[in-house]
Amino acid sequence: MCIRDRIIVFFEDKEKILSDDITERQKFMQDKYYSNAILITKPGAIQTTLRQTLQDRAISSEFRIEHFEENELFVNITKHELVPKHIVITNDEKEALLTKYKLKESQLPKMLQSDPIAKYYGLKRKQVVKIIRSSETAGQYVTYRIVAVSYTHLR
């Protein structure tokens, strides 16, 4: 049994995080019924291959660990003046959007799951975000993006 709304935060002070450390965290999550976790590490503590493994596991596993380095958390990126407002829409709103404009999911512009905003909101593959930008000519400009693992497809 996994409770979907439970999240745990792991603070790792190690200089180097190994695959066994991640497996240990996932086992803890499973034992304590957590489906989501945030792993905060020192800069450079996770090698590129392990970072990719984390992303792959987030797609294929019911236990998702989102990784942040400490320096990524110094500033709230959603409050920056150059970052437009992002609103996560529901599945019903997504279906209404696709129907209204006669679109398929694959026709929406993409946002990578590794994008800082996607990570901030904990967005998962195929979720859609509404982006509201200020415009001198139109006042506001609204666009939508679907979260994808890569720009080539939604996998």
Query: Counting H and I runs of at least 4 residues, what is the number of helices?
Result: 4
Helix content: 25-40%
H/E order of the elements? Answer: EHEHEEHEHEE
Average pLDDT, rounded to a whole number, is: 89
Rg estimate, integer Å:
17 Å
Task: Please tally the β strands and state the result.
Answer: 7
What percentage of the residues does DSSP assign to strands (E)? 25-35%
Largest sheet: 4 strands, mixed
**Helical/strand content category:** alpha/beta
Low-pLDDT residue intervals, each spanning 5 or more residues: none
Q: What is the general shape?
A: globular
- Largest sheet strand order: 4-6-7-5
Measure the end-to-end span: 26 Å
Features:
155 residues, four-stranded mixed β-sheet, three-stranded parallel β-sheet, 4 helices, 7 strands, 28% helix, globular
Describe the structure.
With 155 residues, this protein is α/β, with parallel strands linked by helices. It is built from 4 helices and 7 strands. It has helices at 19-32, 48-60, 91-100, 116-121, and strands spanning 3-11, 34-41, 64-69, 85-88, 110-112, 128-135, 139-148. The chain has a 4-stranded mixed beta sheet. A 3-stranded parallel beta sheet has the order 1-2-3. The longest helix has 14 residues, at 19-32. It is globular. The relative contact order is 0.13. The mean pLDDT is 89.
